[in-house]
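QUALITY CONTROL LOG
STEP: pairwise intake check
CHECKER ROLE: data steward
CRITERIA: each record must contain a sequence immediately followed by its structure tokens, with no blank fields

ENTRY 1 OF 2
RESULT FIELD BELOW
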Amino acid sequence: MMKWFLLPSFTMVTTVSSVNLFVASYTGSITTLSLTQSTEGQYTFSKIATTETPGLHPLWQEKRGDLIYVCNDNLAAPNGSISSYKASATGQLTLVQQPLSTQPGPVSTVIYNQGKALAAAHYSGSAVTSFSIGDDGILTPLQSFVFKTPPGPRPQQDVSHPHQVVLDPSGKFIVVPDLGSDLLRIFSIDDTNHLTEKSPVSVSPGSGPRHGAFLPNYGETSSTLKFFLISELSNTVSSFAVAPSGDSISFTPVSNADILNKPAPEGLASAELQISPDGRFMMTSARNATLLSVPSTSSENATEIPSDTLQSWAIDSSTGGIAFQQLTPAGGRTPRHFSTNQNGTMVAVALQGDGRVVVFARDASNGSQGPLLASIDGMGEALSIVWDEYD
């Protein structure tokens, strides 16, 4: 069932041609959606391809050119896997490599060394792994780091839980938020694609660091690199000034704020953090607290439905300070992942709890979220969404 909304007074979204998005669902598929704007200004979603992944549970996508690498959580096996696909111009996915067995629970990947290698974070495997990428996109295992670090004080922190791999703008380091051990793990990168583990950075005990991002254009607006972190267990967002430190990098805390700009309700779980393409704003998401509502997406139901929230923040690029701007509906329940389009005028949200994908308008000039443009249900447990725009 689909429904779309457009407020004519919101002028930041201009007429666009059809664009594809890839949605990974934990129920075992990757769906290609086409988002099209009519001449009347209405946006609609349509499903144009579905790639079934029998026995696998895809939950993260990393796109580089026409290649997409997908993390799979293999519930029926002791290992995880990473699949490789090639995307056609029409949105069809062709399997490049059969799922490659990995450490358990891969939840994030990042491509490094100009497309020559890939690193993965393994939540349930307490590990970081690396792979070389052949000219044909084929992955070959390189390294595996398994962590036995003492965990944090909360029940969810039973062991080390690496949750993401983040490449710094220089391409020389990878940072890994470890939710289980309250650490930012740091790895340097050499010319042969190998990683070297450096001394980790401790964050607040019990905070549970989940995802992070570097300021993408720091050289244009600030001489100091900045890093932003969302912590799932403390429900906070933090910023750091990053500087060279011998053969590694150092992190100096700059600011820390509650994800909702007020104390978190019981059960809240912060999820995603992304920096806007221009580096001036930050968006975050929080799950398990339906504080707002949105119109029902069903034509048979005129009532409003509960919604978790997205948050908008302004970034002071010179200091790394953050200022809360806006609390808005996510479009439904459990916004585990979202992503903005290339020019920052739309944000797509994967809503795991409702099996829904939505797209909101976004004002790139001031970072505010606009009206709901399009929505599609029946997407299973939607866990990640990627625009087919980025190289």
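ENTRY 2 OF 2
RESULT FIELD BELOW
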Amino acid sequence: MKSKMFKAIIIGSTGATGRHVLNQLLTNVNCELVTTIGRRSSSDKVKNKKHRDVIIPSLKDLSSTKKYWMDNDVFFNCIGTTRKKSGTAKEFVNIEVGYSNKSAEMANQAGISHVSLISAGGANPDAWAKKWIHPLFYIKTIGQKELTITKNFSFTKTSIFRPGMLLRLQGKKNFFEYLARSTGTGLSVDILASAMIRDAEKVLEIDKKYSNIFIGNKNIIKSINSN
């Protein structure tokens, strides 16, 4: 049976996983159009007619992008940062939860039925955490990020991916990435991207309410080849 054609919109397309979601969608024969919204261009030097690259000054206000959210089948939330990159705990929450909530609101208003979100292992919005205890504060914040699509706004279909250590294919790598790579416990970001897209294609065929949380790298990898 021929797969359904679909249109996708991405937030976080310049990040480690987001850029792979974008590039794989651009080569996916079932994807008609990919819209990316961000503060900087996510396109390569060679333009792709399937890619609509929307650049705005800040993700704090998405009101100017309203028309670009319309007529999409799936929204990929690939937002991801670190406390160090954010500068402060408050800004970390603003990015992970605030931007995610604003984009979920836009997707909801546009009537997008399926949202696919990158979370993290152990995510728990109810975790006891002080801002200075980073590991606990991280899982609490990422858990709150999940609530943007499971509680704050109502979507017919939701997919949440909770990977373990992610292995970036570009950029500076930290000690934990080297350790995960050497022990075989990490998950390459391109594989995570493939799992998210494969899931989106399968969800297109579902006509009822759908909710799934893919926990751990093994389950994420397994989902790519499952029916």
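INTAKE CHECK: passed for both entries
DESCRIPTIVE NOTE, ENTRY 2: The domain at 6-225 is CATH 3.40.50.720 (Rossmann fold).
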